[in-house]
Every structure is written in C-alpha cells, then in structure tokens.
Description:
Order of helices and strands: EEEEHHHHH
Radius of gyration: 22 Å
Shape: elongated
Mean pLDDT: 84
Helix content: 40-55%
Strand content: 5-15%
Largest sheet: 4 strands, antiparallel
Bound molecules: zinc ion
Number of helices: 5
Amino acid sequence: xxxxxxxxxxxxxxxxxxxxxxxxxxxxxxxxxxxxxxxxxxxxxxxxxxxxxxxxxxxxxxxxxxxxxxxxxxxxxxxxxxxxxxxxxxxxxxxxxxxxxxxxxxxxxxxxxxxxxxxxxxxxxxxxxxxxxxxxxxxxxxxxxxxxxxxxxxxxxxxxxxxxxxxxxxxxxxxx
Length: 176
Ligand SMILES: [Zn+2]
C-alpha cells in the first residue's frame, strides 16, 4: 500500500492531531477505489478513490484511521475471481503491512503517551458504562460522553501534577 496525491489542506482529527488526506494506491501506484471500478475522476466526496488521513508532511497513515484504511485496502485490493482466472500467473497482491511492527518502532515518549492515553480512555469508558447503563457503547452519544470524561480526567491529572510540582518546589526551597 502507498499513499499519493496528499492534499495540502490540514484537518484536525478527533484525537486533536493535524492530518492531511491522500489517496491510497497499491504497490504499483494504481489507485484503490471504494467501488472496485476505475477512478471516476470526480472530486470531493464523489471521488471513488479510497482516501486516508496521514500525519502532516508525511505519507504515513495517521494512527486513528490506520486499521480502518488497512482493512479496507485488504478487502478492496484483493483481485476478483475474474481477474484471477484471466491473469492466472498473477502473484498475490497481499499488501506489505504488518501491524505488529508498529510497537517495535515506538519511542519511550510515544509509549508513555499511548499508555497514559489508554489509561484515561479506559477509565472514561468504565465511568460512562456505570453512569449511563441505558446507552449502548456503539452509540455516538456514548462516544461523546467518553470523550468529555477523558477531557475532565486529563484536567484533573494536570491539576494533580501541578500540585505535586508546587509541593516539590516548596520543599526544595525550605531545605535551602
Ligand atoms: Zn487522530
């Protein structure tokens, strides 16, 4: 899988990071289309080419949509039975994406951030389940409540750390 034609406009992902959108191609640079047809040449949401969010200034799939895009790519890039019959000598077009590799390249800071993020999200999720037993966790509203709770928890964490810093500072100055 490759990404090309990255559009310069930046968008803010739901995770808060800036992303840009590009078009997904196979390893030979052929566009992947959502409907399996040839690219229709249309623009915007009528464009049938598969698009994907990438981290700004790169062609690296942005984490939030990486799994979704890869799943779609795997599904859409499979040669149809017809192609297989015609091109009997064609080798499999299995994409060279291995999800397990992602954690290998994780820096200590990324690991710390990811673990903190997961911890806060998981607590927000559990609180939402407890306080809103009537809402399915597949519901959009549920997601919004989890998001709101994550922000509150983040603020509490910041307040806690600031308090700790101030205590350490006061203690250091008393000892002088
Ligand atoms: Zn994101």
